[in-house]
Design goal:
This protein has 119 residues and is of the alpha+beta class. It has helices at residues 2-20, 23-26, 35-48, 50-53, 57-70, 103-106; strands at residues 31-32, 73-74, 76-83, 86-94, 97-98, 110-115. The protein has a four-stranded antiparallel beta sheet, covered by helices on one side.
């Protein structure tokens, strides 16, 4: 229940934070997330929001990163584009590997922005 409440809170905060402040501020002081931490956060986020579980990759990735941050860690937050056909995508990664994403689908995207944890 506690994890669910935290996930709901991060989803709600994401709606406003994604428009107000860059994610670079949120990562300050966090240690790098490992794969189990990032995957648990992503699963918690998609379990509380049908919209975020669907096509809202930006909100999903930010909410996942913020939920990790509440636990003291930060995954690599990424955005990228592909041109054939044009599409944009946002996701989180650990050690360069996408978390909860089809790795083959993400490799089609050219990384535009990455916000890793500071080591």
């Amino acid at each position: 229940m506690r994890r669910r409440l935290r996930a709901v809170a991060t989803v709600l905060v994401t709606a406003t934070r994604s428009r107000l402040r860059p994610v670079e501020l949120a990562r300050r002081g966090a240690r790098p997330a490992d794969l189990p931490q990032a995957l648990r956060a992503r699963n918690a986020v998609v379990s509380v929001s049908v919209a975020i579980a669907g096509p809202r990759c930006l909100e999903r990735s930010i909410a996942t990163a913020l939920l990790c941050r509440l636990g003291g860690t930060w995954p690599q937050w990424c955005t990228g584009v592909t041109t054939q056909p044009f599409a944009a995508h946002a996701w989180v990664a650990v050690d360069g590997d996408p978390v909860g994403e089809d790795p083959d689908a993400v490799t089609d995207f050219h990384l535009v922005m990455s916000v890793p944890a500071r080591r």
